[in-house]
């Protein structure tokens, strides 16, 4: 009986939103043999992190870039133990996430979570709990859902790992991050997150996977991690569908091979 309800729910969503008819990226018609409901063109277009990645945050690294840390992580570390991503944030990744977040297509989170599940299983992490980066109630009411929570909940279901949607809370409504500098991002989310006092005991000594859709500078991930570690989580790993590119300046040209 335990697995019947989730299967019925999954079947219900597939009936209303067939996941094997249209590519989740470009919307072209596909058949059900295509993994993750991605057409062949979009699979080839995606910038998968199946090569070299930053040993700290998980960003995709260029083949001719020598260090094992991206330029952002070389300038300063992070509070979380390690970060992971499925792909670099490019045009195809932007299209998928835009449809997922802003076009009222929360059901796409099921397919994205399948991709994320297969990516994170290769790391053989020991995890106790999966949490989403929380969204402020006001923004969630406007959008209708927190995309990070959709991903985290589906991922937890697929991995059969405990999940909590209201253990980590967003205590203040912050500015949109896409137009802010790295320093402004850090200040924007400073003390923006807190652990629920009623659920703090559930976190003590736990290894946590913190899930979001996009990683850019890591300001949000660090702010969340700080709150979790202060509440006695033992380790925090960060996992996103897409991470920003490793940006190399003219001064960094000398570190290419």
- Number of separate helices: 9
What is the typical, i.e. mean, pLDDT? 86
What is the strand content? 5-15%
Biggest pleated sheet: 4 strands, parallel
- Enumerate the strands of the largest sheet in spatial order, edge to edge or round the barrel: 1-6-5-2
Structural class: alpha/beta
Number of strands: 6
N-to-C CA distance: 57 Å
Helix content: 25-40%
What are its keywords?
257 residues, alpha/beta, 4-stranded parallel sheet, single chain, globular, 14% strand, two-stranded antiparallel sheet
Would you mind describing this structure in some detail?
The protein is α/β, with parallel strands linked by helices and 257 residues long. Helices cover 34% and strands 14% of the residues. The protein is built from 9 helices and 6 strands; from the N terminus they run αααβααβααβαββαβ. It has helices at 4-16, 40-45, 71-75, 91-102, 109-121, 137-143, 147-159, 182-188, 219-230, and strands spanning 82-88, 129-132, 168-170, 193-195, 207-215, 235-243. The strands form 2 sheets. A 4-stranded parallel beta sheet has the order 1-6-5-2. Helix 5 (109-121) packs across helix 7. The chain is globular, with a radius of gyration of 18 Å. The protein starts with a helix and ends in a 14-residue tail after the last strand. Residues 1-12 have low confidence and may be disordered.
List the helices and strands and how they pair.
Blueprint: H1 4-16, H2 40-45, H3 71-75, E1 82-88, H4 91-102, H5 109-121, E2 129-132, H6 137-143, H7 147-159, E3 168-170, H8 182-188, E4 193-195, E5 207-215, H9 219-230, E6 235-243
Parallel strand pairs: 1-6, 2-5, 5-6
Antiparallel strand pairs: 3-4
Helix pairs in contact: 5-7
